[in-house]
């Protein structure tokens, strides 16, 4: 019993930092609707700034003073980021801002490396709080007790701020209906900046408070972000008490998981999240999202139509160029183009459900990697012919999408996104941990194409035919009645239902189709690289696709393809430079600010404008 | 004060690449180029000392007239820790940049991907740092050579020491991925062979770099082991050591730490380094004057102004191996280079004579083992020794059985 209680205390202590970071993210999302991927970066900044300040300020006063100052400093950085990066793009399509926050992550990673160096920093001990107290005979670190004692005060302070002060009233009002708050004369811009600063400060405090239990290192931004999102989603996006309950729940369950199911450390929290979302689609204390959120911000979308003559000729010209490429280009250009086509098909399949279907998936890599693994497993274990194994890739990925979609499709918006993320993590952990079958992290190697395809130009034509074919097929589907039904369901589910469209079934079918096409891309991928590793199933792989779709332009048909092409080329070039993450981050932020409709969308608007002024002149 | 100076330096370096957007590859015309692929950003703490070690060796070799009368040149490329990206870069290095062979990577999965790629395309790959046993054994191929002593060998060295004690009940803690699992498996097999009555009473598997140290320590304590085998490293290790120390987990218990003595992991612990642990590592500070190991350490500290890490040593020896192979081959085509690496002998390396076994393409680089102590507020290895890997290897026949038919 004493042991049990001591474990419970460990869980509570772990919950403290987690709650601080998660509450900041939840606040930011609640008011600004920004899914802030960079939140982990503020946590990391908090840790580094905290270590630096603690080295300068001596004694107990210095230690606690450093923590308070850290929060203020990180809050100021957050305010700066909000004003410079996010403020210009609030009117962009929903979730577009997450691309900008991704740019911020890259910039902060390189800046932190420059300022603090590569070596891990061990956090200073809290003065006077080294060692343990014995509780029922079990040792409990003193600092754990302090953390447990502090957390309720922070929760209370936040609760007081939100429910008892005028600022809190405004924040709550903005959470419910930000247009109305603006209409009532509240300066939204400063409200958003303030909330973003507060959220960042909370993350910074989280980073500084955990120092005596750990330290500061350059990987901690990505390492915490998964757990933080899980906590926010389980609690219900935007709900502070929910975040608190979820932080405690996850932390305590993890502690018991470590003891009684030591192998579960990778997936436990994602399993909990999946269960919670399946039972309670909006988290423990969350509210249902306002219907029709998608497409509200920004100008209304013009109806899609097939390309005109110029567009068709451009595409034909591009295809002709690609078809003749092996005649004059060197081998590496072919490889790079294969990579580009694979990524373009993967992005196009995500773009299909995201742009046309309005379903934001955070776990699309499960189907890309799933397809790659399906083919690789057949070759590796049964020596299946490459042609057959290749066909199995889209088939298996489609089946996987049917399975995952069955759970996810009933959810909407961010909750849908997070459930897909949870499932993709489950698939990842399966590949990672089931070593007898998948060889885990060692991956499946020596998966090369059949002899007749095993030359650079042969495989290039194979990729060109299937990749471009897949992209054109998806495009065709968008223009077919199925595509119209899908868009109807996205723009107005109620009207679509009323005209006899079974919205959920259409979405389900689209999700499966997108999964199969991602699997096709995965199949091409695995035979071009000769190996597959769990990295292809990671959250990062899903986000890569998500980012290029937004960067290319969600509300355009070519967005995914153009974004993928752009990103492949830019990355290939930038990674040759020393500080490529900084440059890439700045470039992404610049593109996002200059072209808030994405590359294709903004080019199109520009063309329309030019044409518009021309036709006025000719009149 | 250091903070301000660093910040200024950082700002200066931040602006530099914007001013001059030139690739890092130099354009010497008739140099011999080696393609070096690594996770320079993702694992900066490990890759940077490794790169410095390479640069030191290249500088020394070129000052001596280079190899085959030409300067040696390394092309450094960042793969973001992604195996697929690494393969793309490898192809570019070999087909476009004119590299004669490939080397690099720290992560085993990237190393395995490059190894498979090299075998398929007929390139030569020297895996410098990856520890996975499968690289030269179960997934081995004629095109892949490996420098560092693998997981199996280092774990076997610890198991040998553990078998000398009376401890019967063992608990293990290792990061939950291939390396951690292999390391535990290797320790278990070796220890059970030496001492069959040993039992393993707890196995803990924290997620890499996401350890819940308090919970892991409680779980280990609950199993009441006589001894503990640790494979965690980096920030996981720091948290584990801190929480375990506070809660008295290590009191009266033997602890065996794989890689724990390597400066990469030991230095950040400062005066909280866990005293009494028996570890593998790199005691550069205790090498005697006049030994080749010490000469390297001095040269490294002179040129870089930093203390060496194990990565520095590996980077340095990688270049020595490659230069020796090119000299032996007398040419730079892949077939000659592979033939040269088979049974290659490199004299006068920091560890003495280094050779590459014809049996499995593994080098004879061993490992340092010793006991941790705290001196002058820093963790150091004492009573250390350098161990040759040969006695800890499986038999030649076992290795031949593991290696796919060549």
From TrEMBL, chain A:
GO terms for molecular function: branched-chain amino acid transmembrane transporter activity. InterPro entries: ABC_transp_permease (IPR001851), BCAA_transport_permease (IPR052157), LivM-like (IPR043428). GO terms for biological process: amino acid transport. The keyword Flavoprotein does not apply. GO terms for cellular component: plasma membrane. Coiled coil: none annotated. The chain crosses the membrane at residues 6-29, 41-57, 63-86, 98-118, 143-162, 183-206, 243-261, 267-285, 313-334, 340-360, 365-382, 388-407, 414-434, 458-486, 506-527, 547-570, 582-603. It is a multi-pass membrane protein. Keywords: Amino-acid transport, Cell membrane, Membrane, Transmembrane, Transmembrane helix, Transport. It is found in: Cell membrane. Belongs to the binding-protein-dependent transport system permease family. LivHM subfamily. This is Amino acid/amide ABC transporter membrane protein 1, HAAT family /amino acid/amide ABC transporter membrane protein 2, HAAT family.
Automatic annotation (TrEMBL), chain B:
Pfam families: Peripla_BP_6. Gene3D superfamilies: 3.40.50.2300. It comes from Primorskyibacter flagellatus. Keywords: Amino-acid transport, Signal, Transport. Residues 1-28 form the signal peptide. Belongs to the leucine-binding protein family. This is Amino acid/amide ABC transporter substrate-binding protein, HAAT family. One of its GO terms (biological process) is amino acid transport. Residues 44-373 form the Leucine-binding protein domain.
């Amino acid at each position: 019993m004493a042991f049990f209680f001591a474990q419970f205390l460990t869980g509570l202590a772990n919950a403290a930092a987690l709650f601080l970071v998660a509450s900041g993210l939840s606040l930011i999302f609640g008011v600004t609707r920004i899914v802030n991927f960079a939140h982990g970066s503020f946590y990391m900044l908090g840790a580094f700034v905290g270590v630096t300040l603690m080295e300068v300020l001596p004694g107990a006063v210095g230690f606690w003073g450093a923590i308070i100052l850290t929060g203020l400093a990180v809050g100021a950085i957050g305010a700066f980021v909000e004003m410079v990066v996010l403020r210009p793009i609030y009117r962009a399509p929903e979730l577009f801002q997450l691309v900008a926050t991704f740019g911020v992550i890259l910039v902060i990673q390189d800046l932190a490396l420059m300022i603090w160096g590569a070596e891990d920093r061990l956090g200073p001990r809290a003065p006077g709080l080294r060692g343990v107290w014995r509780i029922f005979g079990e040792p409990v670190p003193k600092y754990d007790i302090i953390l447990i004692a502090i957390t309720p005060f922070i929760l209370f302070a936040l609760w007081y701020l939100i429910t008892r002060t005028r600022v809190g009233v405004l924040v709550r009002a903005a959470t419910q209906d930000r247009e109305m708050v603006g209409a009532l004369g509240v300066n939204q811009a400063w409200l958003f900046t303030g909330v973003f600063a507060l959220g960042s400060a909370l993350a910074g405090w989280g980073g500084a408070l955990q120092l005596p239990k750990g330290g500061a290192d350059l990987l901690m931004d990505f390492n915490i972000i998964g757990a933080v999102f899980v906590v926010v989603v389980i609690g219900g996006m935007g709900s502070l008490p929910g975040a608190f309950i979820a932080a405690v729940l996850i932390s305590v369950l993890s502690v018991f998981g470590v003891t009684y199911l030591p192998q579960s450390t990778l997936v436990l929290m994602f399993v909990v999240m999946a269960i919670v979302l399946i039972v309670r689609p909006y988290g423990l204390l969350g509210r249902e999202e306002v219907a029709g959120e998608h497409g509200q911000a920004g100008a209304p979308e013009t109806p899609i139509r097939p390309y005109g003559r110029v567009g068709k000729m451009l595409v034909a010209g591009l295809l002709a160029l690609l078809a003749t490429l092996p005649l004059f280009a060197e081998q590496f250009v072919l490889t790079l183009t294969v990579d580009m086509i694979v990524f373009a098909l993967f992005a196009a399949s995500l773009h299909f459900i995201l742009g046309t279907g309005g379903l934001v998936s955070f776990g699309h890599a499960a189907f890309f990697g799933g397809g790659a693994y399906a083919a690789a497993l057949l070759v590796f274990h049964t020596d299946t012919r490459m042609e057959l194994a290749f066909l199995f890739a889209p088939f298996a990925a489609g089946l996987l999408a049917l399975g995952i979609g069955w759970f996810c499709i009933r959810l909407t918006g961010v909750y849908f996104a997070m459930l897909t993320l949870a499932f993709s993590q489950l698939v990842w952990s399966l590949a990672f941990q089931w070593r007898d079958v998948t060889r885990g992290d060692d991956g499946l190697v020596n998966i090369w194409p059949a002899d007749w395809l095993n030359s650079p130009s042969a495989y290039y034509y194979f990729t060109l035919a299937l990749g471009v074919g897949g992209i054109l097929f998806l495009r065709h589907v968008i223009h077919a009645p199925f595509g119209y039904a899908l868009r109807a369901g996205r723009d107005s589910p109620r009207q679509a239902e009323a005209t006899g469209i079974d919205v959920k079934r259409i979405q389900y079918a689209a999700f499966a189709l997108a999964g199969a096409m991602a699997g096709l891309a995965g199949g091409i991928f695995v035979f071009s690289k000769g190996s597959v590793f769990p990295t292809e199933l990671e959250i990062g792989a899903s986000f890569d696709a998500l980012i290029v779709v937004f960067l290319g332009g969600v509300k355009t048909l070519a967005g995914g393809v153009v974004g993928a092409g752009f990103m492949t080329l830019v990355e290939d070039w930038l990674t040759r430079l020393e500080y490529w993450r900084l440059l890439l981050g700045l470039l992404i932020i610049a593109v996002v600010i200059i072209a808030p409709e994405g590359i294709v969308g903004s080019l199109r608007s520009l063309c329309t404008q030019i044409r518009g002024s021309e036709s006025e002149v000719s009149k | 004060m250091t903070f301000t100076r660093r910040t200024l330096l950082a700002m200066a370096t931040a602006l530099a690449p914007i001013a001059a957007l030139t690739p890092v590859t130099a354009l010497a015309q008739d140099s011999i180029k080696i393609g070096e692929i690594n996770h320079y950003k993702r694992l900066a703490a490990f890759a940077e000392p490794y790169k410095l070690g390479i640069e030191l060796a290249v500088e020394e070799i070129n000052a001596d007239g280079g190899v085959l009368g030409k300067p040696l040149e390394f092309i450094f490329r960042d793969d973001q820790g992604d195996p697929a990206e690494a393969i793309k870069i490898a192809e570019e290095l070999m087909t476009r940049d004119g590299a004669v062979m490939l080397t690099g990577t720290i992560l085993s999965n990237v190393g395995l991907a490059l190894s498979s790629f090299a075998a398929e395309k007929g390139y030569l790959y020297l895996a410098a740092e990856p520890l996975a046993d499968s690289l030269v054994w179960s997934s081995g191929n004629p095109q892949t050579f490996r420098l560092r002593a693998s997981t199996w060998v280092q774990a076997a060295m610890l198991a040998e020491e553990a078998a000398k004690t009376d401890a019967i009940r063992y608990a293990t803690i290792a990061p939950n991925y291939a390396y951690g699992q292999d390391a535990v498996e290797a320790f278990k097999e070796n220890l059970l062979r030496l001492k069959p009555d040993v039992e393993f009473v707890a196995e803990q598997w924290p997620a890499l770099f996401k350890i819940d140290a308090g919970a892991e320590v409680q779980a280990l304590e609950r199993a009441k082991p006589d001894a503990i085998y640790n494979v965690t490293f980096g920030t996981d290790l720091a948290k584990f050591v801190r929480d375990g120390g506070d809660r008295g987990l290590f009191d009266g218990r033997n602890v065996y730490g794989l890689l724990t003595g390597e400066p990469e992991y030991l230095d950040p612990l400062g005066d909280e380094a866990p005293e009494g642990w028996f570890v593998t590592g790199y005691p550069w500070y205790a090498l005697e004057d006049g030994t080749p190991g010490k000469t390297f350490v001095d040269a490294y500290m002179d040129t870089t102004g930093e203390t060496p890490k194990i990565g520095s040593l590996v980077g340095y020896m990688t270049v020595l191996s490659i230069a020796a192979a090119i000299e032996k081959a007398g040419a730079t085509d892949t077939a000659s280079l592979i033939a040269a690496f088979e049974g290659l002998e490199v004299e006068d390396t920091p560890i003495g004579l280094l050779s590459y076994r014809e049996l499995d393409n593994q080098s004879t680089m061993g490992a340092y083992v010793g006991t941790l102590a705290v001196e002058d507020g820093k963790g150091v290895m004492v009573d250390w020794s350098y161990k040759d890997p040969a006695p800890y290897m499986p038999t030649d026949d076992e290795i031949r059985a593991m290696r796919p038919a060549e």
